[in-house]
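Quick one before lunch.
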Amino acid sequence: MMSSLFSPYTLKSVTLRNRIVVSPMCQYMAQDGFMNAWHQAHYTSMARGGSGLVIVEATAVSPEGRITPGDAGIWSDEHVAGLANIADAITSAGALPGIQIGHAGRKAGCTPPWEGGTPLAPADPAAWEPLAPSALPFVADSAYVPRAMTLADIHRVQQDFVAAARRAVQAGFQWIELHFAHGFLGQEFLSTHTNERDDCYGGSLENRARFLVETVRAVRAVWPEGLPLTARLGVIEFGAAEVDSLAESIQVLRWLKEAGLDLVDVGLALSTPDEPVPWGPNMLVPYAAPIRAGTGLAIGTSWMITSAQEADRYVRDGKLDLVYFARTLLANPHWPFQAARELGIDDPASVLPTPYGFWLKNWSI
Ligand code: 536
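Model of the 536 complex:
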C-alpha cells in the first residue's frame, strides 16, 4: 500500500499512528528545569489533536545548557517524575512520546524571545557563563562571550547527554532527538563560524564532527536498541558556504548513522545572526532528497509546511517519512483532524480520541 500522511510509520520497534509530528517547541515556562501544569496541558492538548509523535521541547542536559532560565531540564534524577507525567499524558492520548535533549552552547543564558531573546544582564542573579567550542560571541563585538570548553568540559557534557538519555528512558519516552541545530552546542562544534579549536575537536570536518559522532555513539550505548535515536541537524549554512555545508552534512550524517543514528530531522544551522535564510513555504523539503540519497537515513523535516495536501504528497512521493509541524499546531492543536477532512480520508474523526471523535463523526460543518 502506498504511504501517505495518515498511514502508520514503523521505525525500529515503534509504530506511529500517522506521519504528523509535533515538533519540539520551547515553552520557557519551567522553573529550575521542572515542568508544571502549563506543560502538562500543552502536551496533552498536542497529543489529543491526533498527531503520531509528540516531541517534548528542547530539554537541557545541564543547567548551563538552557537557552533561558525557563527551559525544561533533564539534568537531575528529580526531573524524571515530572517528565514521566508528560510522557504518560502523551501516551494515553494515543501518540508516541518523544523528547528533544540539547545544550544551547553560546546561545545559553538569554531572556525568552518575547523579552528580546538577548543575554541576561551579568548582574542578574539568574545569569551564568555560557560554554562553547571557542570563546566567540554569537553577536559580533558583543560582551557576551562564552568560555571555550576544556576537554574535561566536553567529556562532562557528553556524559550529561548520556545521563539525560537514561532519564528519558526512565520517564517513558520512546523516541529521542538530539538537538544538533539552530546554532546550539552540537552545531557550534560543526560550524567553522563557531569552532576555532586546534585540538581533536576542531579543524578538519572529522574533528568538527567528533563531538556529535561521539555523543551519538555514547547515547546509543544506553538508549534501547529497539527505540529510535534521531537528531535535528542544521544541514545547511545558507550564504556563501551553502553547497559545501550540505556536502559536509551528508558526510557527517553517514558517520552519525554508523554511530547509531536512525533518522535525521533536517534543520537549519542558524550559526550566525546574519545567516541569509530563504524563509518561505516548504523551504527545507528540497534538501531531503539529496540527504536521503547520500545517507540512507530515515528522514523528516519542518519549517513552513502548512498544507495538508503538500505534506501528504511529500510522504506519497517518498520525499519524507515524517512531517514536523510547529506553528500550524499552535494555531490549531486539532489540525490533524482538519487535515484528514481536507484529504478525504475515511472516517476523519477517528483521528481524534473517541470522546471527541464520536461527536464529530459525520459532523458536516
Ligand atoms: C526557532 N527557535 C528554536 C529554538 C528556540 C528559539 C526559537 C530551539 O531550537 N530551541 C526559531 C528560529 C529562528 C526563527 C524563528 C524561530
